[in-house]
Amino acid sequence: MFKLLLRSFIGIILFCLCFSTGIAQTTVQINDKVNQHIFEYKQIVYFEDTTGKLGLDDTRDAYLAGKFAVNHEPTPVTHHNNSAYWYRIKIGKANATSNNWILEFFDQTIDSITVYSPVKNTYRATSLGSSRPFAARFYKHKNFSFNINSSQGPDDVYYIRIRSGHSVNVIMVLRTVSRFIGYALDEYFFFGVFYGMILVFGLYNFMMFIAMRQVQYLYYIIYNLSIGLYEMCADGIAYQYIWPNYPGWNNYAYGIALFSASIFAILFAQKLLNLKVNAPRLNKVIKWVIIFRCIYFLACIAINMAWFNYKIIEFLPLCISFYAGCYVLIKGYKPARFFVIGYTFLLTGFVIKSCIALNIWWLPVTEFDYYSLSICFIMEMLFISFAIGDKVRILKKEKDVAQQDIIAQMKQNEELKDILNRSLEAQVQERTRELVEKSSMIAEQNEELKSVNELLQQQAEEISRMNVLLEKDNIILHNDIEKVTHDRVMLTEVDFEEFSRIYPDRETCFKFLSDLKWEHGYACRKCSNTHYGSGHLPYSRRCSKCGYEESVIAYTILQNTRIPINKAFYMIFLMYSTKGKISSHKLSEILSIRQSTCWAYSSRIKKVMEQRKKEIKNAGNKGWSKLVIDMTA
After folding, report:
1. For residue 533, what are the contacts with CB-CB under 8 A and spacing of at least 6?
2. Is 363 a residue whose pLDDT tops 60?
3. Residue of 258, 267, 206 lying closest to 232 (CA atoms)
4. Which part of the chain is the 7TM-DISM receptor extracellular domain (predicted)?
5. 278, exposed or middle or buried, with CB in 10 Å at 0-12, 13-18, 19+?
6. Which of 103, 108, 374, 377 is nearest to 238 (CA)?
7. Residue 227 shares a structural domain with residue 370
8. Are strands 112-119 and 101-105 parallel, antiparallel or unpaired?
9. Which of 87, 94, 483, 615 could, after both became Cys, cross-link 160 (CB 3.0–4.6 A)?
10. What is the mean pLDDT of the chain?
11. Domain carrying residue 81
12. Could you tell me the pTM of the whole model?
């Protein structure tokens, strides 16, 4: 009896939960009078699966348990890349319909969409998303679409699982097929106009580049083409027509296009506004912005391509360019007026698109809002073309004024030339008379100079002979100095204090030993892997594959040596410089180490010297270091 009452109580609670949850969600009714409907607010409930492993049954249990939350945003957004988001919508079919209906997703950058549609007493899964080949789509359209059951009957509940490597807008639209076809035709017509205008603007600037030979037009051409590629990536057009069989390109192609557009846009602004002359400080700031953007792009490529999703970084070069245009316009640079108008449109579109992406847009996302940035790009390109033409017109006007000034100046110069010629003729006659008088004096002085030159020539020859002798003496002296220096280094009387100036402590010795041991590269002695990391000991190396750690003194003549390493270095140097003839008693006296230890270590060094006799024969003052690496150890 108790068990029966308990089951009844639990059943009542579950029924209440289901009833309360159902009331919280609004049903969207199919109506032939409205050919499309965008889901928003309470029409969508959602659940975040932080594990990313829950299936449909688990999700339905979560709904019954009241874990789904009502959407309070105009457009739902996925905030966490590691989570899977489940959305639940209800489509009412109380009214008879003569149309076929589809459910469409606006955002073409969603990696994975799985739609669970009701079929009798079960659910059928339909997989969509940019991670799947384009040929797998039922509708060969850039958006993700699938048919829904529009026959009259009870309300249908759909579960949608979305997972993406970046934050996406979940814009779901219920449309009739006829509305979808008309919309798609209009949309592709708009795309044709948009990309056609990009090509026209590019061709126009290419002709300007051929005519004017100014690099700013080349920058603008690359900027236009980059914008076109970015828009194709964002709209899904590139996936449909350029790389339909390579979904992986969708993850980073837009980032490369956006980087190229950002860099060449700011370079174009720099040239068009002539910032080097009109705003030198801003010109320096722009150079640093370009360097920072390039570093960020390389970091995205080399470290984490997911950083391409932070498109808000493009706000920095856009604002800098816009501010530069306003600044030079205020200073009186007229070609900047159309530039400022064009960038005002571009900045407006960027703000709208950013608000939609950050989910702070207070209105439901419509087609106009979604494509606002593309429209603003067209307006920006139009006004930038006006700015280029305006600059050419102003330059032509300045050129005409300059030509008129040159003509007037040439006339004035002609008059001055006539006056100057008459004055010069009189002066030439006077100077000719003076030159005739002085020519005789110059002839006499030339004779005197000739005799002086002969004497100087003799002295120069004598100085040349002396210089040759001095140069020979310098070469002999230089060679003598080098020989004395070399002999001084190799003297056995070099004391430990002087030797310690080169190798003063354990750290210096370890560094020298590390450079000597791995001068030809690192290779793990266990698995031959060439990649490593730092070990626990100073200058030791740990294999990145098997984890084997090799200390800096392993496999050297210094392995298992208990004497200080700098004294061991000095002992090797003394043994090498004396060719092994120094006694262990002498070593003990010099290094303050027990004679038995010196004898054991010097015997080991002699053995290595004997083995490498040919190798160190002509090694010079570097020969002692060749004894350190004990290959037999």
Report:
1. 541, 542, 544
2. no
3. 258
4. 42-174, 187-391
5. middle
6. 108
7. yes
8. unpaired
9. 87
10. 78
11. 28-183
12. 0.52
Q: Are residues 174 and 221 in the same domain?
A: no
Rounded-to-integer distance, Cα 453 and Cα 459, Å: 10
Distance CA 91, CA 98 (A): 16
Cβ-count burial 357-369 (b if 16+ within 10 Å, e if not)? beeebeeebeeeb
Rounded alpha-carbon distances, angstroms, from residue 136 to 102, 142, 218, 538:
17, 12, 39, 57
241 with 177, same domain: the answer is no
- Give 3-state DSSP helix, strand, coil % of the chain, rounded to 5: 60, 10, 30
Task: Say if residue 169 is in the same domain as residue 219.
Answer: no
Residue in this structure with the two tokens 């956006």, named with its chain if needed:
258
- C-alpha span between 301 and 308 (Å, rounded): 9
Q: With beta carbons less than 8 A apart as the criterion, state whether 123 and 56 touch.
A: yes
Decide if 525 is inside a domain.
no
| Domain termination site, one of 166, 183, 200 | 183
Same-domain status, 62 and 165: yes
User: Which of 233, 205, 284, 7 is CA-nearest to residue 109?
Assistant: 233
513 with 588, same domain: the answer is yes
Nearest to 102 by CA among 87, 86, 91: 91
CA dist., res. 631 & res. 557, Å (int): 8
Distances from the Cα of 83 to the Cαs of 50, 78, 105, 293, in angstroms?
Answer: 4, 8, 19, 30
What is the tally of structural domains in the chain? 3
Residues 517-569 have pLDDT tens digits of: 888 888 898 898 888 888 888 888 899 889 888 888 888 877 777 788 878 87
Instruction: For residue 36, list its beta bridge partners.
Output: 175
Q: Which DSSP string corresponds to 352-372?
A: HHHHHHTT---S---HHHHTH
**Are 622 and 548 in contact, with CB atoms under 8 Å apart?**
no
Nearest partner of 99 among 156, 175, 158, judged by Cα: 175
Q: Mapping DSSP to helix (H, G, I), strand (E, B) and coil, where does residue 550 land? A: strand
Q: What is the pLDDT of residue 369?
A: 62
Which stretches does DSSP call E strand in 93-232? 101-105, 112-119, 122-128, 144-147, 156-163, 172-176
